[in-house]
Amino acid sequence: MHDSMPNGQSQADSDNVHATLNGYSHFEQVAALRELMNVPQWVAYNSAKKPLDPSTGSGADCDDKFTWSTFRNAAEMHAGVGFELGEDSAIRVYVFVDYDDCFHADGTLEPWVARDVAQLNSYTEVSPSGSGLHVVLRGQLSGKNLGHSEPADGIEMYDHARYMTVTGKHYPGTPTSIESRPEVVEAIYRRTVAARGIETESRAFRNREQRGKMPPERGSKPRAGGISWHLLRVRFRRPFPRHPISRDASPAARPVSARRPARPAAVSAAAARWSGRCAAHLSRGLALAAGVAAHAVAFVVPRGA
Hints:
Oligomer: single chain
Distance between the termini: 116 Å
Largest sheet: 4 strands, antiparallel
Order of helices and strands: HHEEHEEHEEEEHHHH
Radius of gyration: 38 Å
Number of helices: 8
Strand content: 5-15%
């Protein structure tokens, strides 16, 4: 019979826990990792960095909390472990900043990355590849995720719909706790957005609303399936120049340059001939219709009725 532990666990259960945490035991010594370990949003990942459901071994999904589990269950798969940043706004409490390939050959950081890490001043660890850094903060982004860009600019920022790999390899000189730095995060986010020339979700939404209420400025390019108001103006504008004289003035009062030119005699004659032919065809059509109607009545109504 196994000895009883103070928390009700047996000695065997305790041994199993420590065996499970073999390779991750240092997580319990870092305040930031202890905080994350208490949140059941953990997954495992394979050599291709595909997230896996710790309970089934199949693929995990960022918007399906039933494919996440506890830290211990994820650690039992003897693969890498990661933390899910879910879609639900209620659990969107962490910001993940990923710096790729930021180390020089001598182990020093890129100067701009070193400045960012110093300003963020939150828990930072070395990535699984050993060539990058991950910074974890408390908070939210003001817009959409900033994923990998082309050309690569060395930074990605996420607060939802993503999982972050966790190595526990604390980067020296940074805090061991997860801090909240909303002003710094926003400044880095806006800098990256401006450098990439993209819009945040809120700005894009406002622009769509404005485009729905007013036409684009003159000379703007038409959108796919849309209309260029500039071209529309050119196509249907007046064929003759406007004149400062009022429209109420009689044609004789307008200068010759503003009057509509007289219709040529040949055009008038052709129009008259066309009108006469149309009238003749209409008359014949009406006569034919009357004849058909008379025959129909004679056929339906019996004689002598």
